[in-house]
Automatic annotation (TrEMBL):
Keywords: FAD, Flavoprotein, Oxidoreductase, Signal. Belongs to the oxygen-dependent FAD-linked oxidoreductase family. It holds the Pfam family FAD_binding_4. It comes from [Torrubiella] hemipterigena. It comes from the Eukaryota. GO terms for molecular function: FAD binding; oxidoreductase activity. The lineage of its organism: Eukaryota, Fungi, Dikarya, Ascomycota, Pezizomycotina. Residues 60-231 form the FAD-binding PCMH-type domain. This is FAD-binding PCMH-type domain-containing protein. PROSITE patterns: FAD_PCMH. InterPro entries: FAD-bd_PCMH (IPR016166), FAD-bd_PCMH-like_sf (IPR036318), FAD-bd_PCMH_sub2 (IPR016169), FAD-linked_Oxidoreductase (IPR050416), Oxid_FAD_bind_N (IPR006094). Residues 1-19 form the signal peptide.
Amino acid sequence: MRSDLLALLWSGVSLTAEASPASANDACCKELQKEFPSGYFEPSSDQYNALTGSRWSKTAILHPGCVVVPASTKDVSCAVRILTKRECKFAVKSGGHNANPGANSIDGGISIDLKRLNATKLAADRSYVTLETGITWGNAYHAFEAEKIAFPGGICEDVGVGGLAVGGGQSLFQASKGWVVDNILRYEIVLADGTAINATQSSHADLFKALKGGNTNFGIVTNVDIAAFDFDVMWGGEVLLNLTGPETSRSDMLDRLSHATVDFIANNEKDLDTGLQVVTSYLRNGAQVTDLALTNVANVSKPSSLDQFLSIPNKFLDTTRHTSLATIAHQTSLAVPKGFRYVTASVTIKNDYTTLRQIWDLSDATYLGLADKNKVDWMVSFVPQPKIQESYSASRGGNSLGLDHDSDEIVIWLLSRWDDVSLDSEVDQARNRFVNKAKAIAKRNNAYASFVYINYAGPSQDPLCGYGADTVAFLRGVATKYDPTGVFQRLMPGGFKLSSAQC
């Protein structure tokens, strides 16, 4: 009986008489205005337009009934109590770096913008930092440069701490430290009843594990402690290659890039300090470019583990140098600036040359099949996932990503960029074709991996199911325990929800 009741509650059906959504939102906005006179904004204000427009992708800009900007965990608790009492739908924004509509905003409901939760603190023993979740990773890195302290965090400077901290988290320390979530020591989270608790390996350990990949299914995270270490400068930058000549053919270039990528991942355990992403781009101006984003966090210039990449011809730009973590994050963000329409998707494959090479050809064919390709930028990133990165999880309470500890893998991230809203459907269909055919190629080659990185996933994907049935069952159990009436399923509908996972 209890499971049937929870299913009904999670479905979005209210068991009590209530006002219409519009009148409920009006009532919520009025009460929020009373509670937050300096942090409340309506559609008639310039501040409202600035706040709702502060999204990385224009596809994510929606029109809430009002915006509230809390300045503390206590404020977030107050807002959640108001919203749950009146059954008002809402969304939460940390950095706003997710392109999926509804992930960080909402039409008609209430938007909670965490931008004022931006404090940082270094522990007395320098072993961890505390970050509020409204700060961006770039600002967090800058905050500790003078202390010569670093920690695993986002690769782009304008990504918010909040979203990455519950999604897994790719970082420049992936091989040497693991996922960002495996370096989080504590989450402060506001639950559905407005209570704020700390989840750690020893307190609310089930919630602690669930948050490390379980996304926004349990509450609103307001600050985190992340393991830190002494760090000064690093080596890194970008090497740009022209895929269309003059020294060798495109086919030969892709052959060499595929071999180099597979070999690098297979040998990554021999050099845990070196990382890379291989990004191939078709640009609307006709350019066909591969961007090798290269890093060494031990500050070794051009390490030998990158020799295969550095020997590939057709190089026309090399920005690698000794620099800071914050500078690398800034440079990465320049390649994907805000102000465009973006769509993303992700597929994971085993570290297999044949599959990788065929997916590169698939990417070419999918882009060239676009009727309006001269108005679209098409970028596909290949991100190494060495199996050693999973070894860091168990000692810190585990995570909920459901990854295989026994195989090296590659996360493929499709990112398309355009301006004209009339192209939305065409680009979306191309994305879906690419994903479906890439999965088919991988399955045919016995190289398919079910994991879908949730922070790269597109709106039509089901990344939670990619974690595996056992993990999804665990996550649902934790959500039921800490949010028995399904507030973060029903009232906060954006993002990837356990209630809608089809597995």
